[in-house]
Amino acid sequence: MASRVYCTYFDHNYLPRGLALYHSLQQHAPGAELWVLCLSEACHRALLQLTLPHLVPVRLADFEAANPDVAATRPSRSQIEYYFTCSPAWLLFVLESNADAEWATYLDSDLFFFASPDPIYEEMKDAAFGIIPHRFARGLEDQRRFGIYNVGWVSARKRGDGIAALRWWRERCIEWCYDRVEGDRFADQRYLDRMPEAFSGVHVISHLGANLAPWNVAGCRLEWNDGRVEIERRYPLLFFHFYGVKRSGDYYFNSHRVYHAPFSGLIKKRLYMPYAAALAEAERLSVSLLPGQQPETIRKPVAGNLVDRLLNAVRKGRITVYRWLDIVTGRAIAVR
After folding, report:
1. Across 145-194, where does the E strand assignment appear?
2. Mean pLDDT, residues 222-232 taken together
């Protein structure tokens, strides 16, 4: 089988998410190489200490030295805008740095795999470039202003048409990449909208189990069947995009409320609880690697029931009323 490599980027604040992604990828695609663009020196030091197999950490300064035209945009952009600018250049850097790689795939660091990504590559067997749609659920049509496709998964093949599309994307992001909608542009993402018509070999991934997310889960029927989550009784869940998961005190909160998405018992037990467990384990490991980066906790009074303690936390500004409601209604996941 031709070599497939993956890449992502994150700083020390996102290290637990990045580690959760790495371990889920290794579980379901053993031996898959994951390159990490370390957006802070603390992140790079931590990954070097871990010496994880098949993980290649790269310092941001080293990437910038190889991409001076990308680095030149940094003073004119916010931190997140600069990171967006790096996306296609980082993907191209990884593809060109691996002599044996046929495919390089960019992954957002908040993805988590539940099965092998093989079905996606089977879909892309004749393609040169792979992009994945948001598939916004009904009622979220206004979100399309941010793009038809999601940068959570982008694949480029080492052949002429794949490289051409990737280089075009890289050039566009150097020209303009800001965290706002302006005409037909938004960050690094809306450039993908033009690709199916502008380039041959661009494949739109159709597998419903790829990139299930808070913004599209309301439009899918999920079932637990034969030890796995299935979508529409046909597609196994491959990976979920855990966008917006945040820890506050002793709980993890999701972004389902923002997208008016359901949070069924199946979603909680089969998706979010495994992810929360992976994050908690990664956070415990990160504490020893990142001195001074202790997880935030809610200090509990000696006495009082759960509701009293949470109301006290709301009064002191440690959690919002919405998060209090998520806890008491069971939508939040307790840190284990």
Report:
1. 149-157, 181-182, 185-186
2. 97
